[in-house]
Known about the structure:
Layout: H1 7-19, H2 29-39, H3 45-60
Helix pairs in contact: 1-3, 2-3
Amino acid sequence: xxxxxxxxxxxxxxxxxxxxxxxxxxxxxxxxxxxxxxxxxxxxxxxxxxxxxxxxxxxxx
Length: 61
């Protein structure tokens, strides 16, 4: 069984991928985390990390 992500995390991640497709790397979570922090304004590290992790997961598959 895998992790279930909230709809808003999926929506934010897909919007960022659609708006900035060349900014993210498929296999590098740390790079994606930095780019998410630059491109979007999050109040918490947890939300930023979950969005970056989902982006990494989408691009890796």
